[in-house]
Design a protein that fits this description.
This protein has helices at about 15-20, 35-45, 105-110, 130-140, 160-165, 180-214, and strands at about 5, 25-30, 55, 75, 80-85, 90-95, 115-120, 145-150, 175. With about 210 residues, the protein is an alpha/beta fold. It comes from Streptomyces racemochromogenes.
Length: about 210
């Protein structure tokens, strides 16, 4: 279920690091090129985030579509990593995925053991998040779509975005500001709650027939 148990916690009082690290969940942050994945991980992380950004090169201009994000000068080439404590005893490890097609071979490795994912979307380039939506739907990894509300971008409601992306019924769509820590944290809480319900339902479905036959 994507739960990471670090084993017996070391002795410590309430609020100690040992208590806070008792349970950690792996979360992916995905989406198209320039949608704000690195920004979101950096905004919510309580530790200095690990970033693998490189300056965009002239060679990359041939394969990276920068329409709508012309001011972007760097790109993630491996992953971003951060951590946030949601409450005592529960932390999230955040793994930001690279957005360009040529780095997608990393996604399968990053997705191993993930509880769920956040798919960031930009309404100016909504089609860019289709591949991420397809990826998680096909692998049955629970996800929420978080619309990063860029200045100057068209404003659309959650239902409109869900219809445009042809999401499976029940997939949450939330509006957010990837630069704002509280906004990003709300997105992550929504994901954990949704993924928890999905995994619980699947578990009950898997044990239901056996339980009824006893």
């Amino acid at each position: 279920m994507g739960l990471y148990d670090d084993g017996p916690a070391e002795t410590g009082g309430p609020g100690s690091d040992a208590e806070l690290a008792a349970l950690a969940l792996k979360i992916l942050v995905a989406g198209g090129f320039g949608v704000g994945k690195t920004t979101l991980v950096g905004a919510v992380s309580e530790i200095r985030p690990l970033r693998t950004e490189e300056v965009l090169s002239e060679a990359g201009e041939l394969v990276d579509d920068t329409d709508g994000v012309e001011r972007k000068t760097t790109t993630t080439v491996a992953m971003d990593f951060g951590r946030i404590t949601i409450r005592s005893g529960l932390s999230l490890y955040l793994f930001g995925t690279p957005g360009q097609d040529r780095f997608w071979f990393l996604w399968d490795e990053l997705a191993q053991g993930a509880l769920g994912a956040v798919v960031l979307a930009d309404t100016r380039r909504l089609e860019d998040c289709f591949p991420a939506v397809d990826y998680f739907e096909h692998r049955r990894i629970p996800f929420v779509v978080a619309v990063n509300c860029f200045a100057g971008a068209g404003r659309y409601g959650a239902n409109e975005v869900a219809r445009a992306l042809d999401l499976e019924q029940g997939t949450p769509v939330v509006l957010c500001d990837a630069r704002d820590r509280d906004s990003g944290k709300e997105v992550l809480i929504r994901l954990v709650e949704y993924a928890g319900r999905v995994h619980t339902a699947r578990l009950l479905d898997s044990v239901g027939p056996q339980a009824g036959s006893v």
